[in-house]
Structures are given as structure tokens and as C-alpha cells.
């Protein structure tokens, strides 16, 4: 979708699938406005009957009896009011359901698109800002569709119908009612252009505020431990004040709209009242016709005073539309391949792979590595050497700049992303648990798993014992990010999750780096069970956990500088041997 288009065009392009319901709602709104205008005309006809009796407009249609004329007007009035009420019910339902449907699908489309974006996108985005787009911006659009769209349609219908009636009944007076309309339209366009940057700024400020709040709530433990509550409150106050001031500037402009329209309405109404009255007194205009013109002048122009609120909804909605559509237009950098992989042996090969994060120096340099199917290899090295980056490249969370990565001889770029990632189980040092039960977190990724299968996976991960001691066992709620559990407990649930997934390839990224020795021993025992006959890549800080690997690689500055078994590397007296001695001496010192 072209980002240079007007936001309304972008919305209409997106909403093509709702064309039928939009037309139904539009027709209902137009019909309702026709019924809404009719009572004023019926009042004028009634006045004409009372004043002219047998010479009235209805009498010219062949209905000479005055009582019959009034009865007919009464029946027509009842029918019109019923139709007006019915059409209002219909258009209200149609517009509200349409707005709900669009906001629901738009939120799902936007969220689905976000999930397909590469990790680099999220590194440059605030979570709070994305939340503002998915939440508040889409809600603003919903509010405009719920109320504003109908208001605009009815105002346009009102102007066309009543303007037409004026030119039919009293062409000489019609101009006094029509003249203010171009002024109001020109004023509306001017206000629209004036308001657009203000509301764009409002949306930006609310995104920053949401970002601050989301960041602080996620880091509440750090805030408390550093006693920075007052400092953070001041920062939230500053962001909230910036949002308030941004809204205040927008309100100052939009609030001036209605008083100016009222002046235009006053001019038109007084001119019709004066010159129409003179024409009626001089016999140039019927009393009934004069009554119709007086009523319709107000009916024509007073709804325009609501344009201020409608314009406000419109501009907020269009500012939000731009933000949502910009998100949907964000290109997906990592495209899925087309080849499926029904059976995975687990042979992985990296051939001259080079990778650098955006605007940073190269992290992996022409690295080549072959991992035979079913073997366990370990990668060690100092922080920043590129170990964890390899995991992200294997999962295609980032795209390599050059080289090739293959799985069972097939370039991973050619594979369906779902097939690729489904074949890999990741146990990371930074375990993420969702707010929900222990069972739900273990079964995450395997939603059809039975309770027996979940328990079996927990036993292999040596998590069953501590889970049984929890207040509700497997139904215990772990809290957001698993904050009710210890680090070791979260780690063992992550291992149970990988066991249940049963992938042909297992990646352990510092899986025991942040736990005590007892927990490490328990985790190590479970890892020994699940790595059998499975391709396993262990990224390790504690060398004792990978000493039995088939092959150990040492990384330094994005390159492999040593390779061999544990004993072979110790014999080389190189980097690995130095790390091993440091860790062994640290254990002795403890």
C-alpha cells in the first residue's frame, strides 16, 4: 500500500473486503436522514392546510376535506417516524458492527504482520509504541467508524436534500441558506490541514508515554532495588505532560471550529427569517412554505455545528490510520522458502558465513562449521565472540550477509520457516514463561499434548518434583514472565517444553549459566537424557557441562580458533585450556 496516499484512501483500500456492509450502512444513513427531514416539510404542509383549507397544497391533489387532509398528514407522520426509528436502529447496528469487524481484523492483521518481522525491527522499536499502535490507534479508528462516518454521510445528505427543497420552493431565498455552506466546507478543509500535524504529534506522544510505562512495568524489580520510584514517576510525569500539552494544542485549534460555524448559521437563519417573512407578508410566499423554509434552515445548518466533533474524530482516526498502515507496510525482510522438510536428520553445515548487526561491526566472519546428524557439539568463547548469534542465524531470526547455512543439505533460505523452526528446540538462558499455568507453559508449542505427556516431559527435565510442591501443582499460575518461580525452576520448565516438542535439533544457549550447582547437576542429568540420538548444539559458559560433547569449538571475534574434544583441547594448552583452568581454580577457591 502506497504510504504517499491520503490516510482515508489507505483505509478505503484496506476496507475493500467490507464494501457490501459499508454500502448497506451508507444507504441506511441516507434513508434515515430523508426521514429525519420529512417532519419539517409535513409541518409546513399542515400549516398550509390550516391557513388555506380547501385551497391548500393537498387540496390541489384532490383531497378537499380539511379533516381528511389532517388525518392523511397524521398517518404519513407516524409512518415517517417509525421508518426513521427503524432506519436509525439499522444504521447504528451496521456501522458499529462494521467498526468492530474492521478493528478486530485490522488488529489481527497488524499483529500477524509484526510476528513476521525480523528481530532487527524490534531492536529499533519501543514495545510501548507498538502497543499503542495495536491498541489505542486501532481504537481511535474504531471510534471514527462508529460515529464519524455516519455523521459525515448524514451532513452531506442533509445539505443536498434540503438545498434541493429550497430551490424548488423559493429559489430567490435559497441562496441565503446555501451561501454559508461553501464557507463551512472551506473552513473545514482548512481546519483539517491545520489539525493533521497536531494529531500526528499526539499519536507520537502517546506512543512514547506507552513505551515508558511498558518499560517501567517490565523493570519494576530494578526500580525498587535501586529505589528510583520518584525518579521514574518524574519521567512518566514529563511524558504524560508532553502528551497533555500536545492534546491541548490540538484542542485549541479544533475548539475554534464550532463558534465560527455558528456565526455562518446565524447569518443564514436571520436572512431567511427576514426576507422570507417580507415575501410572506407581501403575498409572494405562502405561509406554509415560509414555515418549511424556517424549519429547514435550522435543519440544514445546525447539524454542521457538529462538524467540529466529527472533524476531531476524523483527524484522530486518520492520524491513527497512518500509523497502523505504516506498520502493515513495513517490508518483511526474511521471506519464507517454499521447500518442506517432512523428515529431518539434523545435519547442519555453515559455509563461509558472514553476519553483522545493522550499523555494527561484523560479528561472524567467514565461518565454516559442519555438525553431523545426531552428534552433540559445544561452542565456547568470551562474551561477544558470536556464540549466541549463531543460534539466531540457524533459526533465521536474522539473515546472513554472505555464505550459506544448510540443513540436511538444503539451504535454510529455501525451507518453509515453519518447518525449519519446528525442527529446532531452543533452551535459552533467558527463559520466557507466559502468564498462565505450569502445564500451559510446558505444553507451549505442543497445545494438543495430554496431561500425561506434560508430566512425562517434566519428569525427564527433573521438574516434576518441585511442580508437585506448588500450590496447585501443574495448574499453578507462574505469573508474568514466570516471576513466581526461581531461575532454576524456570529453566527446567523450559527444558520440559523442549522435551515435549521433541525436535530433531536441540540448541542449549547457556542453559545452566544462571543456576546454582545443585540445580545445574539436575539440569545436566536431564540434558544427558534428551540429547541422546539428537543433533545438539550447546552454547556454554560453564565448561564442565560440555566436557562430554563429541566436539568442542572455541570462538573468538566471530571465528573458530580451536576445535577438538575436551581432552584434545586441554592438551593444546590454548584458549580452552586457559578457561578450564580458571574455572577449576575458582571452584577450588570456593
Q: What keywords describe this structure?
A:
62% helix, 21 helices, ABC-type oligopeptide transporter activity, 590 residues, alpha/beta, ABC1_TM_sf, 4-stranded antiparallel sheet
Could you characterize what this model shows?
This protein has two domains: 308 residues, ABC transporter type 1, transmembrane domain (ABC transporter transmembrane region fold, Up-down Bundle), CATH 1.20.1560.10; 242 residues, P-loop containing nucleotide triphosphate hydrolases (Rossmann fold, 3-Layer(aba) Sandwich), CATH 3.40.50.300. It is elongated, with a radius of gyration of 36 Å. The strands form two sheets. Strands 6-7-8-3-9-10 form a six-stranded mixed β-sheet, sandwiched between helices. 62% of the residues lie in helices and 10% in strands. Strand 9 and strand 10 form a beta hairpin. The relative contact order is 0.08. The protein has 21 helices and ten strands. By secondary structure, it is of the alpha/beta class.
Break the fold down into its secondary structure elements and pairings.
Blueprint: H1 7-14, H2 19-52, H3 66-116, H4 119-123, H5 127-169, H6 171-178, H7 180-218, H8 220-225, H9 229-254, H10 257-281, H11 287-301, H12 307-328, E1 348-356, E2 362-371, E3 376-381, H13 387-394, E4 402-407, E5 410-411, H14 417-422, E6 424-428, H15 438-442, H16 451-460, H17 464-468, H18 487-501, E7 505-509, H19 517-530, E8 535-539, E9 551-556, E10 559-564, H20 566-572, H21 575-589
Parallel strand pairs: 3-8, 3-9, 6-7, 7-8
Antiparallel strand pairs: 1-2, 1-4, 4-5, 9-10
